[in-house]
Amino acid sequence: ADQVDVQFPNAVVDVHKTVQQVVADFRMIHPDFTFTLDDDLEKTTFVRMYRNHLEQVMIILMDNAVKYSTNRKEIHVSMAQSSGNGVALAVQDFGEGIAEKDRRRVFNRFYRVDKARSREKGGNGLGLSIAQQLIESYHGQIEVDSALGHGSIFRIDLPTITEAKAKALKAQEEAKQAAAPKSDTT
Ligand code: ATP
Asked: Measured in angstroms, how far is the CA atom of residue 121 from the centroid of ligand 1?
């Protein structure tokens, strides 16, 4: 029998749906921005993780992209098949960018590049460390590419599962729910 562990729960997320939803939310919340969604995925793509975890990571990246976009109010989101068995997601902005010396440290807890300036923008310097912990706990990777003054691109790579595996996990989860005593969780 399949064992349940924290890293790989019997939860399956449809990457398409989730990313589209988050982008739609941001279009609504930030009507002054242009959000493009470049979808190169050939088929429905599933990752074995909690949906709210993928949502949270996308929200952190997109919220930063908005916060640190100084001149051009444009954000590019993309999804594509990655080399091997994975999905590659990217959030790109054309804002202030991150200097090379700061690039690795932005994932550290409480690290903020410009303490005084970023204080005005709010935040604690926790977002990216949370995003990194979540992604790595699902055996994925997150990295940043940036050019100071020109913008940044955050890339995520997550291992995917086949549609058959996704269906099997969903069925298993539904059977478990049906067998469990009724609770008021929805
Ligand atoms: P919060 O805890 O609300 O997310 P935060 O944005 O300061 O606050 P992180 O998301 O962890 O925290 O980001 C850490 C730092 O990395 C930021 O303070 C900022 O200096 C830099 N940073 C993050 N994203 C970008 C981006 N898209 N462009 C430029 N700098 C960024």
From this structure: 9
